[in-house]
Amino acid sequence: VWGSVVAGPPDPILGVTEKFKADKSPKKINLGVGAYRDGNGKPYVLPTVKKAEQKLFEAKMDKEYLPITGLGSFTKLAAELAYGKDSKPLVEDRLAISQSISGTGALRIAMAFLGKFHETSKTIYLPTPTWGNHIPIAKDSGLTVKHYKYFDKDTVGLDFEGMKADIKSAPDGSIVLLHACAHNPTGVDPTEAQWRELSDLVKEKKHFAFFDMAYQGFASGDILKDAYAVRYFVEQGHQILLCQSFAKNMGLYGERVGAVSFVCDSPEEKAKVDSQLKIIVRPMYSNPPVHGARLVSEILGNQELYNEWLVEVKGMADRIIDMRTKLYDTLVRLETPGEWKHIKSQIGMFSFTGLKPEQVEKLAEKASIYLTKDGRISMAGLNDGNVEYFAESVSKAVKG
Ligand code: PMP
């Protein structure tokens, strides 16, 4: 039956993990995967998540279906976390929101909605580079993909002028996707002043601002700071769309908890958008999974657990920031050719090291260190036990 099917290419990120698994070296390191690891290199279940799980177990909850757009207590709390309890769209009851299958599912619903209903344009502008999955999600949702400049290879920083020029030259009313914080894969974010400029520019061009926020709190350790761009745009009157994920900031990767929300101009518009969200979701997966959403509700809805969670998120962010400093210091101490300041200034889970594909290959062959070909490393894969070895191996690979 499937004789005419041609084998497709393997996923570039998951392929790195395959190679890592096959390697027998005791020193091997996997820096490909985008999941947090603790100081011993192990997956981390947050203590607040364990507590919430215990509460749910004791409450003997049933396993009934959720409504199409998910658990109401969860979506309310998720919206408050992102936008702020006192934000106008919440106070004025004009935010349409649906639970989603984590951030990816949020993007999928959002883009399907845009493909069906965004009137002025079906073209979405993505940064170069962007999270790889943005492109097929957009295409599969019927959007045309174009790009705006983002990363400057020479400075290993933001190409802000290029970014603005491309957003400016896009036809009025285009869709512009922005990483709210901790840009993946580069770890390079606009400053707050630059976000303010971007808000003006997007408004002037009547573009539609689409925020992907997969790392709130995880980027800087401060949930307010990480929500700056989202909240500023909303304050400025942009009717944004927002995708949220609780994979990173609550370590709920496999539970698949997220949300997609649309700032509308009135409760009436909200009701209409809400009805169409249901029409999109129902034939895709009917309704979302319940367990993860209950966990998030328990944590965000309980002041004590919420305060503990803030400390845990900050702990994860701080460990990563500490690894950035240690990696930078060691590379400099080893007199590694090149400029490495970006390792410290980049934000979030990932760092774009600037390593070339042949150096990446050398690291795999000679040192059993695995990362994606573009030189991106997951900082979370580093710890006190392997950061020296990693820095030494990078230093050798760069020196040639
Ligand atoms: N957007 C970005 C920018 C991401 O980095 C990720 C996670 N790698 C996601 C969305 C979605 O992840 P998830 O579906 O696991 O929430």
UniProtKB/TrEMBL annotation:
It is an enzyme of class 2 (transferase). In eukaryotes there are cytoplasmic, mitochondrial and chloroplastic isozymes. InterPro entries: Aminotransferase_I/II_large, Asp_trans, NHTrfase_class1_PyrdxlP-BS, PyrdxlP-dep_Trfase, PyrdxlP-dep_Trfase_major, PyrdxlP-dep_Trfase_small. Homodimer. This is Aspartate aminotransferase. PANTHER family: ASPARTATE AMINOTRANSFERASE (PTHR11879), ASPARTATE AMINOTRANSFERASE, MITOCHONDRIAL (PTHR11879:SF22). GO terms for cellular component: mitochondrion. Its EC number is 2.6.1.1. Pfam families: Aminotran_1_2. Its cofactor is pyridoxal 5'-phosphate. It catalyses: L-aspartate + 2-oxoglutarate = oxaloacetate + L-glutamate. Residues 27-393 form the Aminotransferase class I/classII large domain. Belongs to the class-I pyridoxal-phosphate-dependent aminotransferase family. Keywords: Aminotransferase, Pyridoxal phosphate, Transferase. One of its GO terms (biological process) is L-aspartate catabolic process. It comes from Dioszegia hungarica. The lineage of its organism: Eukaryota, Fungi, Dikarya, Basidiomycota, Agaricomycotina. One of its GO terms (molecular function) is L-aspartate:2-oxoglutarate aminotransferase activity. It comes from the Eukaryota.
